[in-house]
Every structure is written in structure tokens, then in C-alpha cells.
Amino acid sequence: MNGFRRTGIFVLCALMCLMLSGCGKKKPQEEEEKNYIGNVTQDTITIFGDGSIQEIACDDYSNVSFDYSELEQYIKDSIDEYNQKNGQDKITFLQYSDLDGVVRTAIRYLDMDVYNDFNKTAYRISDYDAAACYSIAQKAVEAELDAEPVEEDTEQDISSMSAEELAEAGLSPEDIQQEEAVETITQEAVLATFTDASGGGEVNSAQVGENAAGGTLQMIFVDSEIYLSIPDSDILYVNGHASMQDAHNAHTDGKGTAIIIYSNINY
Q1: Is 112:123 a contact under the CB 8 Å cutoff?
Q2: Alpha-helical runs (H) found in 104-263
Q3: How is residue 207 annotated by DSSP?
Q4: pTM (2 decimals)?
Q5: Taking Cα atoms as reference points, which of 234, 219, 266, 263 lies closest to residue 51?
Q6: In this predicted model, what pLDDT tens digit does every residue of 74-123 receive, in sequence order?
Q7: How far is CA 83 from CA 80, 111, 117, in A?
Q8: CA-to-CA distance for 78 and 164, rounded, in angstroms?
Q9: Are strands 202-203 and 227-229 parallel, antiparallel or unpaired?
């Protein structure tokens, strides 16, 4: 299941509270010292050099009729409750906007662990790990082929069977070709193919690993659709569930686990 953001939960919970409470007139919006949201209209996560995470969450509730006047405070209270429970200010409320039914919030998190804990997501940041990429690619291939992992030494390899043995097993030479094709697809996909941002060509996880000596590369796994910004680093490689926007920004499609590899920020 893809991760989900806490902001959507805020709104869903607040809907009932606000509808039943008979909210008054909307308070004038306080002047913001800094416009964190800007022109952002899509869910966006920014990873900063100090390890902190900033999220701008955008939710369209134009088809839902309710008073937004207390929603901002509801979000702030939820953040305060989290911080009090965890003993320090790990989450900072930055900005709130609602216009024409579109709610946008800017929130800063101490790090990705805090972000995941608060939002019930499972994003992961680490040094580049070819084995982890291999594992994700393998699971994707197995799901696509709807096949279980093959147990070793349980069945004879049909490519080594004679014509008589194939006939006895009810198989044909075409079955050998099909098995070889599936094996080729599986092996290539499990290598975790990436697009090289520098030239647009394809590289595999082993080739990426050759450039990752000494922890010089980091990666993030994302399983939902977001826009990702890494202003203090350069994005170097993305897998098939992500696309480059520019040297510091990428988009994930939410259809599988996106892997984005970037130069080490050294925070």
C-alpha cells in the first residue's frame, strides 16, 4: 500500500468537527514572514543539507462543502500534540493556505524518520545500496510475471531436456524459448535499471555501484506520487518509477517504488 500523508487525515477528521461545531467567521490570515508555499500546486518534499524535510501538501476539496476557518488551528494543534509527546519540537508548522477549495500546508520535519512517523509513510534515505535496489527490482519482476521465486534443485531445467524428454513432459521447443525469454527479462530487470541524468542513457545497479565508493552516493525510496526536491545536491540517477525535472528535482509516479540516487549531501 502506498504511504499516505497526515494532511489528508487532518481534513477528513476536521470535516465532521467543523460541520458540527458551527464555526464563526473566518479570521484574517496572518501575514507570513516567508512565503514557503509560493506557486507550488503539487505534493512536494524537499530534502535539505541538514537532513531536515519540508513538505508542501496540496489537497483539493473543492467538491466538499465546509468551513475552513478552524482547519489551520486543527493542524497546528496536531503538530503541537506530536511535539509534546516526543519531548521536543521535531515538527514546525510553516504556512497554511486555502483558496477555492484547495488546501496547501507547508510543514518542516527534523528528519525523514520524524516525517515517516507523523505521516505513517515508509520512505527511506540511505547511502547507495545495490543489494536493496536489487531486492526491489526482483520483487517488481516477480509481481509483474506473477511468479513465485524458483526453488533450487526442485525441477529439471527444460533447456537441457532432449526432444524425447520434452515430449514425455508434454512440452515443446517453444517452451524452451519462452523460458529463456522470461529468464532474460528477469535478469535484466533485477539489475535495477536507472536513467543517467548526465546523458539520459541507461545504467544498471552494478554500474551505479562503481561510482558509489566511500558513501559518495545516497538514495531515497518513495512509494507514492510526489515531487521531490534536493536543492543541496545533484540528482544523478532515477529508476523507471521516477522522472527527472532538472538537476535538483524529480517526480515519482506512485505506481511502484521509485529510487532516486543523488550525490552525498554530507549532513
Answers
A1: yes
A2: 112-119, 130-145, 163-168, 173-190, 205-210
A3: H
A4: 0.72
A5: 266
A6: 899 999 999 999 988 999 999 999 888 899 999 999 999 999 999 999 99
A7: 5, 14, 12
A8: 71
A9: unpaired
